[in-house]
Amino acid sequence: MHAPLVTTTGRDLRLDLFRGIALWLIYLDHIPSNVVSWITIRNYGFSDATEIFIFISGYTAAFVYGRAMHERGFVVSGARILRRAWQIYVAHIFLFAIYMAEISYVATSFDNPLYAEEMNILDFLKQPDMTIVQALLLKFKPVNMDILPLYIILLLLFPPILWFLLRWQTLALAGSLALYVLAWQLGWNLPAYPDGSWYFNPFAWQLLFVFGAWCAVGGAQRLGPIARSPITMVVAILYLGFAFIIALSWYLPEQITIVPHWLENLIYPIDKTNLDPLRFAHFLALAVLTVRFVPRTWPMLGSWILYPAILCGQHSLEIFCLGVFLAFAGHFALVDISGAFWMQVVISLLGIAAMITAAALITWYKNLEGRSPGPRPKSPDADLAGGEA
Description:
This protein is mainly α. The protein is 68% helix and 0% strand.
């Protein structure tokens, strides 16, 4: 039976806000030995900005393409999804070329081969022909370039997933959960070049993406009473507190000695590659508090303070690519110019300022061309994190 599409109309600025913040956090986390990265959520729990990104990707992709599938059918909406996957693929290859040129230039010009090793491009320098082919096949990925290939795969598989979600929501989510369990039990992953497997296992991370899509097509309404329950709120707070203590024990092992060995054996390793259940639960706990304290009508969403993050979130593909490029530039500056505290702060602020400036220029250009990212009759294309919806 065809289930009704349950989505809210208009633009939910919370999606733009949190994916914009996620872009900033990813940029800060991508700069090694950056003291400013201590403000990012990865240091205070199990999950990080990646979970925010993938969830919003699924939610807003379903929001955009679910409506198109209702109105125009599977073939047309599926073609639009595949077209967007191609656009993301082209962006990935374009970023790969610039990124390789940036790292190679710095490594050779400053006679520091450690850059090539650290950024995982030694095979590219030794066998550029073979490595480029593997990059085109999404098997070779330098450091910090793992998210786009994951999103490309998720988009390629999304048309049938969305079709099932619109008809049998619970069954589709159960199938996603079953695939996640099988990936854990059987060790499923995609191969990487020259050896190993994908850093973000698509068979595991699809669960968060599909869960986001499930929420967009009616799941959020179903979970509403549970999420607003005081019991759920208490459980979420307690779990976040537990995760915070465990995270502190990583950085202050001598001070935090209350974690028993049996618990360490039970929870470790907390696997990011396969989206560890502890990471997923941590994201859910954060989501519960966010929905509770940041409603859709939150007045601050219209303030100038949050506008820069919202602006970046509205152009997530372009800003993500820029952030990858800037992160390595910042890493180079800290290694070869100065690694002082003030320099780390300056690099972090300049990078975020550059991202905001780029987002503002993109918005200006789209307005100039009559393509404002605000509400308009034409359905927007899905961006890296789901679209301009």
